[in-house]
């Protein structure tokens, strides 16, 4: 009880946060979560583990302690059960609130300032996104490193500061700004910040060297001062709840009034007190936003999580200095922020529930029809970009899932994010799969999913009967009608041809391309010559070496628009494969025209 009386006030903000975000524990996975959940699927040995943890991914980022390890452990231990990960994220958030309140108390010796700052921060709407979307959890993990490092610095424990400072680089690249926060808070210890700046600079150089350059216009850097100021202004408005880029909330007019009210009270207290710590809190906001101000096309609410802690510090100090001036503005703002947090939570929960219904429905379909391919009908644009794009179905053992042909008509075009056609089974393959009984079609328009295979078998027979695929992946089994004589059964990702084989391509195109495989074990070290004929006439010859077994050639003009192109392939020299002495030519992956 003595400890509770002395430190119980530290638990007030976590308890309020539990009240505000109690529904976050039932939010499932959505959007980028599925990409990160699959980060460990390719792990077979120690090198592949290192690759999963440290290889640049997602805009070239390297975040082993936030984007990689938590998802890897979550999926390995709990599969697609999101609740354990949600609980872990929330507990770390509660630890952050305690660390932050204790840090403010160390700086001010005021419990009122510490409690107000922690409450302001936990009610800030920017926290709603990372607490209800697992892919943004790095914004919950990074404050732990910053607050702990500053606490150790305050206590003069340099080893502890360095441990958490270095851990921060494994969480988020924005950790490079920490030395600036440390220097401004403890300017008299400037010498001890020099190694911190050196470490941040070294990390920036190394990260720049290893990270994959991002060419997406969404992440285009703009260092124009006017652009930076405009982006900062948008983040200021966002931090006060009056600008939400992804939602036209009816709360905006209320927030604008509450924001002006809170700002007026804060500016008045700052003018009266001329308090350095309040100014430091405002500087914290700008410093932590600094790197993302260069990204005007990627303004995101969760980037405000750590900057908002600076505002919370400033408002907490103002409330402790002049409570009679700050009480009503903070209550007004806190009420509005709570309502906005609930709107964001509801939005993420609806998206995650849509994902849960679809993925769990496919999981059940795979269990009912093992080995079959599942085709999904009725996928709308929102479902595609928020669920299907990151291929959650690869997390279901044995699942082979595509969208039905024609699904692209329901999906808005966003080439900067991805290509829907990569997930759509072409008509010729869908026809073959349905005709052979190797595929079933499920409607995804409601819950649960509905089996509508009979209807699509009729569609395939009546509308897709004459379609031929312009590109044939030999490892996929549904184009048997286009694969002629001279082919072995499908093996692991390829298919062997005999010395002579036939194949038919549809569509149109000027270029014929092939992709094949050759191993070091082949008893023919030199190139293999692939001769291609049409109606007995040679139309091209490709030399395919062992180290680059792919090539392309320009077709004769008379064949560019031939809708049914029958080709005869001859590979030389051939060889006999022990132990059955099969005579083989080439192992093909893909052949097609473009």
Question: What keyword list fits this structure?
Answer:
alpha+beta; Jelly Rolls; 3 domains; 4-stranded mixed β-sheet; 16 strands
How would you describe this structure to a colleague?
The protein has 594 residues and is of the alpha+beta class. It folds into three domains: 9-14 and 23-351, no CATH class; 369-465, no CATH class; 473-593, Sandwich (Jelly Rolls), CATH 2.60.120.260. It has 20 helices and 16 strands. It has helices spanning 2-7, 12-20, 33-37, 46-54, 64-78, 83-108, 111-123, 128-132, 138-154, 158-169, 178-185, 190-210, 225-239, 252-273, 276-289, 305-321, 323-368, 381-386, 427-435, 453-463, and strands spanning 373-377, 401-403, 439-443, 450-451, 471-473, 487-490, 495-497, 500-505, 511-517, 528-534, 537-544, 550-554, 565-572, 575-577, 582-584, 587-593. The strands form four sheets. Strands 5, 6, 7, 9, 12 and 16 form a six-stranded antiparallel sheet that branches. Strands 2-1-3-4 form a four-stranded mixed sheet, sandwiched between helices. The protein has a four-stranded antiparallel sheet with strand order 8-13-10-11, with no helix packed on it. Strand 1 (373-377), helix 18 and strand 2 (401-403) form a beta-alpha-beta unit. Helix 2 packs parallel to helix 7 (111-123), helix 6 (83-108) runs parallel beside helix 9 and helix 14 packs across helix 17 (323-368). The longest helix is centred in the middle third of the chain and has 46 residues, at 323-368. The termini are far apart.
